[in-house]
C-alpha cells in the first residue's frame, strides 16, 4: 500500500483500491486454488487453464485480505503476526476513509464506489459484519468525532439519505409513506446538476442514529426486494451524507456531499458466444452497469488525450446521479473487490480491467462554500424583482399564462430556500425525535419477543439483507400468506405465495407447519404437503424463493453457528435433493474437477431464478416450463475426451410441445425481461395505470420474453469409431444416441464400408495387416446410416422430425441426412462416399484414434430443415467427397532450381524401381518353376496350392477380433450407464450391485474370450507358416 491518505486530495484523479478476500466455504470445500498474487500495490492474476498466461495490474492501493489472519477474543480479524501483510478493516479505513472524511471537512464532495461480483466482499468492505465494522460505520463515527472536536469554530449539520436503484427506478429506503409507482423522479438543475426529487433526508447528531437509519433502510430494502421479486445483487445502494458547516465568524457556509455507493454485482455470464439473443441484452435492469462502464471508458479516453464526442451520463439513472463523482465536482475513490479462486477467474479479470480504466479518470473538485448572509439577501432581492414582474404583467393585462406560472414556481422555490436556511437546526432534530422514539420502542419489543417465542428469520442472497425480517410464531394457530385481514395472520409477499399459503401451529411448545392445497412449501430441501413438525434451525422455502430459517424456543437454542445456514446452503440443499452434489466423485476423491465446480455454482445460482420464472409463467398463463440441465454431462468429442460442461435451460411450451435450449446468459437476460412483464401485470391487477407500453397480456409475440422462434434442437450424439477403416475392415454397429445428460435418445444402425472408387465393397483379400500400406494410396469408403429406432423425441410428440449431421476429418462444413418426420423408427438409408486420393499419415492417425460424431437434431413444426453447405467442399462428378487433400490443394512455392533437383531425384527413383521390378519378375518365374516341380514330383495330396496365404488368414483373424470387440465396447457402455435411481432404497441398491457384478463378469469374459481367440488364431497362423517354410526351404 504505497499511497498515503494525505496524498488523496493532492490530485483529482480517481483513486482505485483493490481488495482480495479469503476463500468462502464453497471454495474451501471444493479445494479451490488461489490465482491472484500481490506485491506492494500491484496485482497479478493467472489463468488456471494456462499457467503461463499472467496479467499484471497496478493500482493506488492493494489490500491482501486472503490469508495471514486470525480472530481475537473480541471477534476482530487481525494479522497473525505484527506487521503481517493481512489488511484488516482498520487498514482499509485509514487509507480510504480518512481521506474521504478529510476532503468532506474541507468542503469537497467525496464519493466512495464499491465494485465487484456478487459475493466478492463488497458489503464486508463497505458495511462489515459484527465487530468488524466497514468503511461506512467507521466513517460515520469519525465524522461525528471530528464535529465534536471542532464545535467551537463551526456549527455542523448532518443529513442522512438512503436509496436504491433497481430496474431504472429510484426507491427511497427511508420513506414513511407507500412506495411511489415507477419510483422517484430524477431532475436536473443548473446549479445542483442531477438530483432525486422528493427523497427523505433525516437530520442526525450521532453515529448511533445513522446506524439505526441504516437498519431501517435495510429492512425496507429486504421487504421491497421480496415484494418486487427483485434480485438485490442487481440493485445499487446509495447512502448520502450531507455535511453542512457554518462558520459564524467568517460568515461562510461549506456544504459537501459524501456519496457511498454499493454497486450491483458485476459478474459476467459464462457463454459460448455462439448465440445472440433476439431480445436486446442489457435491459433496464442491466442498463446501469453497462452505461457506467461506457462512461468510465469515455472518461478514460479523455484522460489520455483522445477526442470523445459524447460521455453518456444521461443514458441511465445511476450515471446521472454519479456525474459529479465521475469527471465532475468530487474527489472519488473506487474499491474493487476480488475473489481469488480459480473458479472466479473470468469475473476477477473483468473487475481488474474495469478498475484499471477507472483510475485514469480525472475530476474537477472545488470547495463548496458560500457567504450565508449574502445568499439570503440575494434571494430576497430576487423575490422582490419577481413580484414586480408579476404585478406588471397583471396591470398590462397581458395573457402570458406560461410566463406567469414559471415566475411563480421560481418565487416559491426561492422562498423555500430562504426558509430552509433560516430554520434552526434544533427544529430539525425535534421533527426527527418522534421517529427515534418509535424505532427504539419497536427494537425493544422485537428483542423481548425473541427471548419468548420461536420465529422464522429471512435469509437473502445478499448477506446484508439476511436476518432483517423476523416473523414470530406465538401460541395458537397462525395463517401465513398474502392475506392480512385476520388478527391471527402473518403477512408475507413474494412469487408463488398464496392468499393463505400455510398454517403454523404452536401448541405445548411444539411448532408444526401445514401447507394449504396448491401451495409450495419446502423443508430442508424436500417438498412437503402434510403437517410437519419443525425443529430448531430447519430451513423453509415458501412459494418460489422466500427463504426462512426456523428458530425454536430459547431453551432449544445452543451454541450453534447460525451463519452456516446462508443462502447458498439453502440452494445446495435443494440441488442435493435433485441429485446434484458438490465434492463427490465416482473415485471417492475429495478434489473436485474445476469444470464440475463451475457447473455446480451455476446450477445453484440459477435454481431460484428458474423457480421464479416458472411461477411467473404460471401466473401470466404463458404455459411455458423451465428446467435446468447440464450440457455435455456424459458426452465426449471425436477423440473420446470429455466435452466442457455447462448449464443450459430447457424451455418447453406445454401447449404446443415446442422446445428451446437457452444458455445461462440468455436465460438470465430473459429472466429480467420477464420480471418487467410481471411487474406490469401486477400494476394492472392493482389498478395502477402505466405511463407507456402495452398490457402484459397483449404483448406482441416478438417482444414476449417467454417465446422464441423454433429452431432445430441438438438432441444427442453417437460415436462411430473409424479404426477398422485403417485395416480396410467393414464395420456394422448399433449405436446408442446419448443426450447431454446421458439419457438414451435413440438407437442408430450404421456401417463403415471400405470400397473401390466405383463404390463396390472390398473383399476379405483386400484387408490390410499394416495400415501404413495405405500411405500415398487411394482410400475409398462409405458411411451408411441405415435406420434409427426408438426416437424419444418423436415418441413425446408425433408432429416432430429428425436429422443426423456429421463432419469427417477436414470437412469444413457438416453434412446432414434428409429430414424424416412423424416416425419413431424411421428408415434413413443415407449413404455417403468419401475418398482420399493420397492417404497421408495425418489421415491414418485420425482413423486409428478418432470417431465420427453423429449428431441427432430434432425438428419442430415451423422450423426449417438443416441443409448441408457444400461451400469449400471438393467433390467428384460421381458425388464422392474428397478428404485429406492438403498436399495437392496447397503446394508449397518452390523455385526452378529446387524443381529440377526434385525431377532428377524422381527419375533416379523410377530407374531403381524398374530394376527392382525386373529382379522381382525373375524371382517370381523361379518360384513358379519350383512350385510346378513340387506338384509333379512331391505328391499333390498335400494340397499346398489351395491353402490361403498367411496374410489372408491373419486378416480374417483381425476381422473376427474387431467384430467381437464391438460387442465388448457395447457391454462397456452399458456398464458405464448402469446407475441406481434417486429413489432406490437399500434393497434396490443391493439389486443394482448384483446386476453390476453380473455385467462386470460378462464384460471380463467377453474381453478375455476375444483376446484368447485372437492369440489362438495368430499362433495357428505362425505354426502353419513355419511348416510351409520347412517344406519349401
From TrEMBL:
Any one biological process term the GO annotation gives: microtubule-based movement
Keywords: ATP-binding, Coiled coil, Membrane, Mitochondrion, Motor protein, Nucleotide-binding, Transport
Localization annotation: Mitochondrion membrane
Cleaved signal peptide residues: none
InterPro entries per record: FHA_dom (IPR000253), Kinesin_motor_dom (IPR001752), Kinesin_motor_dom_sf (IPR036961), P-loop_NTPase (IPR027417), SMAD_FHA_dom_sf (IPR008984)
Keyword Lyase: no
Domain Kinesin motor: 13-361
Annotated binding of ATP, by residue: 116-123
Bilayer topology annotation: Peripheral membrane protein
Function: Microtubule-dependent motor protein required for mitochondrion morphology and transport of mitochondria in neuronal cells.
Homology family: Belongs to the TRAFAC class myosin-kinesin ATPase superfamily. Kinesin family.
Protein name: Kinesin-like protein 6
Taxonomic placement: Eukaryota, Metazoa, Chordata, Craniata, Vertebrata
Amino acid at each position: 500500500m504505497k499511497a498515503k491518505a494525505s496524498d488523496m486530495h493532492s490530485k483529482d484523479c480517481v483513486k482505485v483500491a483493490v481488495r482480495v478476500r479469503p476463500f468462502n466455504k464453497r471454495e474451501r470445500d471444493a479445494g479451490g486454488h488461489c490465482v491472484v498474487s500481490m506485491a506492494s500495490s500491484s496485482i497479478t492474476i493467472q489463468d488456471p487453464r494456462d499457467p503461463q498466461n499472467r496479467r499484471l495490474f497496478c493500482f493506488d492501493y492493494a489490500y491482501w485480505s486472503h490469508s495471514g489472519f486470525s480472530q481475537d477474543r473480541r471477534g476482530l480479524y487481525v494479522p497473525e503476526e505484527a506487521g503481517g501483510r493481512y489488511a484488516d478493516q482498520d487498514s482499509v479505513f485509514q487509507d480510504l476513509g480518512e481521506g474521504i472524511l478529510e476532503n468532506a471537512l474541507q468542503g469537497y464532495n467525496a464519493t466512495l464506489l464499491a465494485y465487484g461480483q456478487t459475493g466478492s466482499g463488497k458489503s464486508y468492505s463497505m458495511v462489515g459484519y459484527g465487530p468488524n465494522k466497514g468503511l461506512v460505520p467507521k466513517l460515520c463515527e469519525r465524522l461525528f468525532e471530528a464535529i465534536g472536536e471542532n464545535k467551537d469554530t463551526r456549527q455542523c449539520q448532518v443529513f442522512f439519505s438512503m436509496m436504491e436503484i433497481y430496474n431504472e427506478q429510484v426507491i427511497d429506503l427511508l420513506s414513511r409513506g407507500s412506495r411511489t409507482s415507477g419510483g422517484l423522479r430524477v431532475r436536473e438543475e443548473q446549479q445542483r446538476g442531477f438530483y432525486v426529487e422528493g427523497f427523505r433526508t433525516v437530520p442526525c447528531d450521532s453515529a448511533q442514529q445513522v446506524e439505526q437509519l441504516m437498519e431501517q433502510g435495510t429492512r425496507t430494502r429486504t421487504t421491497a426486494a421480496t415484494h418486487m421479486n427483485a434480485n438485490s445483487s442487481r440493485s445499487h445502494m446509495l447512502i448520502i451524507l450531507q455535511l453542512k458547516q457554518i462558520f459564524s465568524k467568517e460568515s461562510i457556509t461549506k456544504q459537501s456531499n459524501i456519496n457511498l455507493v454499493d454497486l450491483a454485482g458485476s459478474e459476467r455470464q459464462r457463454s459460448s458466444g455462439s448465440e445472440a439473443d433476439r431480445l436486446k441484452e442489457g435491459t433496464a435492469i442491466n442498463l446501469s452497469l453497462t452505461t457506467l462502464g461506457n462512461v468510465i471508458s469515455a472518461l478514460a479516453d479523455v484522460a489520455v488525450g483522445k477526442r470523445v464526442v459524447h460521455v453518456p451520463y444521461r443514458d441511465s439513472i445511476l450515471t446521472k446521479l454519479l456525474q459529479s463523482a465521475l469527471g465532475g465536482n468530487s474527489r472519488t475513490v473506487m474499491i474493487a473487490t476480488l475473489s481469488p479462486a480459480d473458479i472466479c477467474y473470468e469475473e476477477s479479470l473483468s473487475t481488474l480491467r474495469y478498475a484499471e480504466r477507472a483510475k485514469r479518470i480525472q475530476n474537477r473538485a472545488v470547495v463548496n462554500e458560500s457567504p450565508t448572509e449574502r445568499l439570503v439577501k440575494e434571494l430576497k432581492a430576487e423575490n422582490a424583482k419577481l413580484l414586480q414582474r408579476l404585478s406588471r404583467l397583471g396591470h398590462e393585462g397581458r395573457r402570458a399564462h406560461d410566463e406567469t406560472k414559471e415566475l411563480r414556481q421560481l418565487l416559491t422555490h426561492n422562498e423555500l430556500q430562504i426558509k430552509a436556511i433560516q430554520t434552526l437546526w434544533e427544529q430539525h432534530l425535534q421533527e426527527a425525535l418522534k421517529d427515534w422514539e418509535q424505532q427504539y420502542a419497536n427494537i425493544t419489543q422485537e428483542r423481548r419477543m425473541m427471548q419468548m417465542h420461536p420465529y422464522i428469520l429471512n435469509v437473502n442472497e445478499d448477506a446484508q439483507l439476511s436476518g432483517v425480517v423476523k416473523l414470530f410464531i406465538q401460541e395458537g394457530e397462525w395463517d401465513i400468506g398474502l392475506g392480512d385481514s385476520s388478527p391471527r395472520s402473518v403477512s408475507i409477499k413474494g412469487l408463488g405465495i398464496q392468499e393463505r399459503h400455510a398454517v403454523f401451529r404452536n401448541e405445548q411448545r411444539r411448532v408444526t407447519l401445514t401447507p394449504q392445497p396448491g401451495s409450495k412449501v419446502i423443508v430442508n430441501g424436500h417438498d412437503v404437503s402434510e403437517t410437519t413438525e419443525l425443529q430448531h434451525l430447519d430451513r423453509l422455502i415458501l412459494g418460489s424463493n422466500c427463504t426462512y430459517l426456523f428458530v425454536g424456543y430459547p431453551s432449544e437454542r445452543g451454541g450453534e453457528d447460525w451463519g452456516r445456514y446462508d443462502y447458498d446452503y439453502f440452494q445446495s440443499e435443494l440441488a442435493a435433493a435433485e441429485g446434484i452434489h458438490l465434492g463427490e466423485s465416482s473415485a471417492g476423491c475429495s478434489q473436485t474437477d474445476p469444470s464440475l465446480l463451475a457447473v455446480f455454482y451455476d446450477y445453484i445460482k440459477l435454481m431460484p431464478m428458474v423457480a421464479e420464472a416458472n411461477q411467473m409463467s404460471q401466473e401470466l398463463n404463458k404455459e411455458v416450463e423451465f428446467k435446468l440441465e447440464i450440457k455435455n454431462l456424459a458426452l465426449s468429442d471425436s477423440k473420446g475426451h470429455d466435452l466442457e460442461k455447462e448449464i443450459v435451460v430447457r424451455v418447453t411450451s406445454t401447449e404446443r410441445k415446442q422446445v428451446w435450449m437457452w444458455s445461462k446468459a440468455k436465460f438470465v437476460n430473459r429472466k429480467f425481461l420477464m420480471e418487467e412483464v410481471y411487474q406490469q401485470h401486477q400494476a394492472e391487477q392493482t389498478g395502477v395505470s402505466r405511463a407507456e407500453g402495452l398490457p402484459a397480456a397483449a404483448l406482441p409475440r416478438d417482444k414476449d420474453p417467454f417465446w422464441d422462434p423454433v429452431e432445430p434442437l441438438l438432441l444427442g450424439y453417437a460415436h462411430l469409431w473409424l479404426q477398422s477403416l485403417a485395416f480396410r475392415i467393414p464395420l456394422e454397429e448399433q449405436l446408442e444416441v446419448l443426450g447431454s445428460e446421458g439419457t438414451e435418445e435413440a438407437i442408430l444402425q450404421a456401417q463403415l464400408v471400405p470400397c473401390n472408387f466405383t463404390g463396390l465393397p472390398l473383399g476379405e483379400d483386400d484387408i490390410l495387416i499394416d495400415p501404413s500400406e495405405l500411405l500415398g494410396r487411394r482410400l475409398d469408403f462409405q458411411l451408411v446410416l441405415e435406420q434409427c429406432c426408438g426416437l424419444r423425441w418423436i415418441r413425446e410428440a408425433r408432429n416432430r422430425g429428425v436429422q443426423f449431421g456429421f463432419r469427417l476429418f477436414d470437412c469444413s462444413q457438416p453434412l446432414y441426412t434428409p429430414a424424416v418426420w412423424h416416425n419413431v423408427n424411421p428408415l434413413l438409408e443415407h449413404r455417403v462416399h468419401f475418398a482420399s486420393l493420397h492417404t497421408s499419415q495425418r489421415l491414418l492417425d485420425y482413423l486409428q484414434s478418432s470417431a465420427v460424431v453423429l449428431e441427432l437434431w430434432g425438428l419442430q413444426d415451423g422450423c426449417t430443415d438443416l441443409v448441408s453447405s457444400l461451400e469449400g467442399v471438393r467433390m467428384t462428378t460421381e458425388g464422392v467427397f474428397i478428404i485429406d487433400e492438403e498436399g495437392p490443394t496447397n503446394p508449397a512455392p518452390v523455385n526452378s532450381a529446387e524443381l529440377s533437383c526434385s525431377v532428377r531425384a524422381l527419375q533416379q527413383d523410377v530407374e531403381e524401381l524398374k530394376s527392382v521390378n525386373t529382379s522381382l519378375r525373375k524371382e517370381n518365374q523361379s518360384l513358379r518353376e519350383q512350385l510346378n516341380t513340387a506338384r509333379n514330383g512331391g505328391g499333390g495330396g498335400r494340397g499346398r496350392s489351395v491353402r490361403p496365404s498367411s496374410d489372408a488368414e491373419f486378416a480374417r483373424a483381425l476381422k473376427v477380433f474387431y467384430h467381437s470387440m464391438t460387442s465388448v465396447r457395447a457391454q462397456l457402455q452399458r456398464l458405464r450407464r448402469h446407475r441406481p435411481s434417486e429413489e432406490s432404497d437399500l434393497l434396490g441398491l443391493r439389486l443394482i450391485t448384483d446386476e453390476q457384478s453380473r455385467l462386470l463378469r460378462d464384460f471380463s469374459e467377453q474381453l478375455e474370450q476375444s483376446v484368447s481367440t485372437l492369440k489362438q488364431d495368430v499362433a495357428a497362423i505362425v505354426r502353419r507358416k513355419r511348416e510351409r517354410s520347412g517344406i519349401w526351404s
